[in-house]
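Please fill in the sequence for the structure shown.

STRUCTURE ENCODING:
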């Protein structure tokens, strides 16, 4: 259900700005969900929850960027990057989460560039891109190449 926010943002682009604060607060609260590491069912639930959150972030970033108001995301970038780092460093994440994290990083870099704090300096970013490049899934590998090139271009 959370991913629907991304679909709405893609559909209404800059008009989503009026919902931004409330929706991002809801996504932030959902991102705080933690589960015991010894319960496989809850781990699977948490991974699906995180996937929905990431789908929403991706749609919101893309929608606001297409509407020319991506800069409205700047105050929320620390929270988004914190969530991406949490997911990236989770040993229980599945490959789908890796893909969504990589896509979200690429979209943030593409939309906001160096205005995203730590996108070129935080170790988890390069580790995640490298993990994606090593994937046997060609889609994940392709997304990692794209995101890595967008982030690399920001360094110069």
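FILLED IN BY: designer on duty
SEQUENCE:
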């Amino acid at each position: 259900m959370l991913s629907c926010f991304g679909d709405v943002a893609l559909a209404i682009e800059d008009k989503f700005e009026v919902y931004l604060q409330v929706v991002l607060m809801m996504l932030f609260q959902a991102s705080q969900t933690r589960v015991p590491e010894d319960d496989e069912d809850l781990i699977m639930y948490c991974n699906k929850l995180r996937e929905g959150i990431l789908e929403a972030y991706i749609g919101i970033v893309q929608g606001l960027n297409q509407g020319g108001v991506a800069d409205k995301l700047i105050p929320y970038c620390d929270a988004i990057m914190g969530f991406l780092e949490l997911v990236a460093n989770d040993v229980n994440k599945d490959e789908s989460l890796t893909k969504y994290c990589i896509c979200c990083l690429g979209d943030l870099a593409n939309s906001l560039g160096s205005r995203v704090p730590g996108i070129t300096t935080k170790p988890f970013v390069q580790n995640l891109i490298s993990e994606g490049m090593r994937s046997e899934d060609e889609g994940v590998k392709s997304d990692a190449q794209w995101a890595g090139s967008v982030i690399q271009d920001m360094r110069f």
